[in-house]
Amino acid sequence: MKNLNKKTKYILFLLLIFSITFLNVSHFSLAGNDDEETELTEEQKEELEKKKEEEEEKEEELEEKKDKIEDKIEKEENQKNNLQKDLNIVQQSLNSTQQSLEQTKDEIKNKEHEINRHNKQIELLNQKNKLYQEALASALRNFYYQQNESAVYLAFKNEGNSKFLGSSDSFDNLRNEVLNLVDEINETKRVTQDKKESIEDVKKEKETLLLSQKQQENSLVSEKNQTQAQIISKNATISELNAKLAAVESDLSGLLGESVEAGDIVEAVEIASKKTGVRKAFLFGELIQETDLGRYTGGCTYKKANMHSYDIPVFKRIMSDLDYKSKEKKVSCGVEGKYYGGAMGVAQFIPTTWQGYELKIEKYTGHSPADPWSLTDGVMAMAIKLANDGATSKSGEYDAARKYYCGSRLSRKVCVDYANDVMYWSKNYKDKL
């Protein structure tokens, strides 16, 4: 410093003073910013706390709503089960009545055969009686002829009175024999007539019984149809409640992200219907039944979904192709020991099934790779499968719905109920849009 001149020292002094002043100002300014930042964080904390309370209230409301829906589902299920029991009883009664009805018809036919047989017997007896009477009349004419011959003529012929008496005795014997036969015939005819009348009485009773059984059959058929209609209605109600429950559960778990707008689903259905020939209404019915029009596509990670072992590597490959995180993407939940989960996206395809449709989906939508969670790809996949199973004609839709849910085992009750629900929603899908 000694070697520096006064001017230089003065300049350095000013610079030192300026630096100290600047640092102090900066310090106070930064400190002020720190205080302001701390105050903003507190506000955020209050806001977050308030938001948390609101979410807890919302969660309580949803839980309460969920409980109410579950209670309604349980009530509807119980009523449906009772109706099913009633239907089984009615069906058993109907089967029994129809068997009795057929048995009564057979009995009436048998009685008719018996009456016809007795009529023929009576006719034969009448003919036999007529023949015997004609024979007796012929014998009587011969007797009178012989009786009118002169005794002299008889004597001249050396036959005498013994011949005349002998003829008289022979005629009496013949007459008595014929009369006895006629009496036997008349007795047989009387007995046959009595049997015939008795059979006719039984036949009339059977015909009265048949009429009563037919009335009972009609009544049971009507009761059966009414009960079946009630069961279908209950299934539809249960399906709708399950959809509502799924929506509530999805709100609780935060699984769905952005909701699917009606316009989007309509557009996706129109594209798929045009490409595959499957009716739009039927596609809507299937979509409602599967995922409530894409609103609920699953609530489990693949590790918790009880996914089949052969589906896991395919699932991971699909996730890799789509650049999704396999540990985070949600699929349908299964129950260990009961059934497998792992169905993906809007159409609820399991990974190996999706793999078989990928190329065709990509061809129709132009999306490569095809995405199960894409509304366009998912609806297209559903439409392609339904078309392959016969849903391009209205008459093939019912079986296509059963195959969609059950594969080849179509006769199971759960498959029939599922198809009935799909057909119901295909007629009432506008209520869901």
Protein model, in words:
It is a single chain. The chain has 433 residues and is mostly helical. It folds into 2 domains: 76-244, Helix Hairpins (Orthogonal Bundle); 256-431, Lysozyme, CATH 1.10.530. Helix content is 77%, strand content 0%. The chain has 10 helices and no strands. Helix 9 crosses helix 10 (413-428). The chain starts with 5 loop residues before the first helix and ends in a 5-residue tail after the last helix.
Question: What's the topology here?
Answer:
Layout (H helix, E strand, L loop, with lengths): L5 H142 L3 H6 L3 H94 L8 H15 L3 H12 L20 H11 L28 H15 L9 H14 L8 H10 L6 H16 L5
Helix pairs in contact: 1-3, 3-10, 4-8, 5-10, 7-8, 8-9, 9-10
Count of the domains = 2
Q: Helix-strand pattern, N to C? A: HHHHHHHHHH
> Quick check: average pLDDT?
78
What would you call the structural class? mainly alpha
How many alpha or pi helices? 10
- Helix content estimate: over 70%
Compute the CA-based radius of gyration: 50 Å
CATH topology of the largest domain: the name is Lysozyme
CATH architecture of the largest domain: Orthogonal Bundle
How would you briefly describe this protein structure?
By secondary structure, this protein is mainly alpha-helical. 77% of the residues lie in helices and 0% in strands.
Features:
single chain, 433 residues, mainly alpha, Helix Hairpins, Lysozyme, 2 domains, elongated
